[in-house]
Amino acid sequence: MQMTRKTVGTTLGLLAPVVAIATVVLWFRMNSAIGIPEDRTIWIVFSLLAIVMSVASFVIGTRWFGGVAAVVAIFPALLLPATIAISKQQVAEQAIKVGDTIPYFVAVDDQGKRFTSDALAGTPVLIKFFRAHW
Amino acid sequence: MRRWSDELQGEFEARGLKVVTISTDYPEEIRKRRGAHRLQATMLSDRNLGVTDAFGLRNEGIHSGPVGEGEAEALPVPTTLLVDKNGVVLWMDQAENYQRRSGPEVVLAAMQQYLDTGG
């Protein structure tokens, strides 16, 4: 009985990183192919499943290699929940909205030349703010 | 990453629309990456967030960009604005979550809805 219990724990521990890593790999593949899926529940569920498996392997009891695998699994399993948690954005109350007139602004362009928003008068404009570095 | 701009270049030209991009990158960083975009756009550097703040688009939540000496102190919330010739905002699309952004089909639909009706 003790042996089978330990076998179950070890198996869970060994499978945990497989689930965690597969989830992360699939997530990144999907993102590069078609963009971020709207509903991310399933990804979170699998990440949490990997964590539950890790914890369960310790609770049930595991051989050392099952334990090592279970600990390793925690890191990829936490990656998605963590990035989703920090990716919420907040803007100030006075943020621009539909119907507002855009403010006058001055900046430098990619040639280092001064640019003022006067240059945009008289034509429709698409303005895109984006995050740097990627 | 998908290049929304490549697909839309013709659509922009057909409507006489100017494209302005704003990021906190230095001009030389923008220049270096410009080859990757075939977009004919004015690409502005807003290192001190002056433009971002004028629009009220500074991300006041946590951002995952690099921090420290020489890095921008904050980042804008990724936002796409469609502005008419009088400077009035017709449409905007904002990512509440920065992992999402306006795809080309969303931008195209907005142009068709707001610019092509003559309104």
Give the class of chain B from helix and strand content and strand pairing: alpha+beta
Q: Would you tell me the overall average pLDDT of chain A? A: 85
Shape of chain A: rod-shaped
Structural class of chain A: mainly alpha
Mean pLDDT of chain B: 81
Largest interface (C-beta under 8 Å): A-B, 51 and 71 residues
Measured as a percent range, the helix fraction of chain A is 55-70%
- Approximately what portion of the residues of chain A adopt beta-strand conformation? 5-15%
How far apart lie the N and C ends of chain A?
Answer: 54 Å
Total beta strand runs of chain A:
3
Low-confidence segments of chain B, given as residue ranges, are none
Fraction of residues in H or I helices of chain B: 25-40%
Tally of alpha and pi helices of chain B? 4
Number of helices of chain A: 3
Order of helices and strands of chain B: HEHEHEEH
Global Rg of chain A: 24 Å
Name its key features:
heterodimer, A: about 130 residues, mainly alpha, two-stranded antiparallel ribbon, 3 helices, 3 strands, rod-shaped, B: about 120 residues, alpha+beta, 4 strands, globular
Outline the secondary-structure elements:
The complex is a heterodimer of chains A (134) and B (119).
Chain A: H1 2-34, H2 41-60, H3 64-86, E1 106-109, E2 114-116, E3 125-129
Antiparallel strand pairs in A: 1-2
Helix pairs in contact in A: 1-2, 1-3, 2-3
Chain B: H1 4-14, E1 18-23, H2 27-34, E2 42-45, H3 50-54, E3 79-83, E4 89-94, H4 104-114
Parallel strand pairs in B: 1-2
Antiparallel strand pairs in B: 3-4
Q: Quick recap of the structure?
A:
The complex is a heterodimer of chains A (134) and B (119). Chain A is mainly α and 134 residues long.
Describe the protein's architecture and organization.
- The complex is a heterodimer of chains A (134) and B (119).
- With 134 residues, chain A is mainly alpha-helical.
- Chain A has a domain at 5-86.
- Chain A is built from 3 helices and 3 strands.
- In chain A, strands 1-2 form a two-stranded antiparallel ribbon.
- The mean pLDDT of chain B is 81.
- Chain B has helices spanning 4-14, 27-34, 50-54, 104-114, and strands at residues 18-23, 42-45, 79-83, 89-94.
- With 119 residues, chain B is α+β, with helices and mostly antiparallel strands.
- In chain B, a hairpin with a 5-residue loop joins strand 3 and strand 4.
- The interface between A and B is large, with 51 and 71 residues.
- Strand 3 of chain A pairs parallel with strand 1 of chain B, so a sheet runs across the interface.
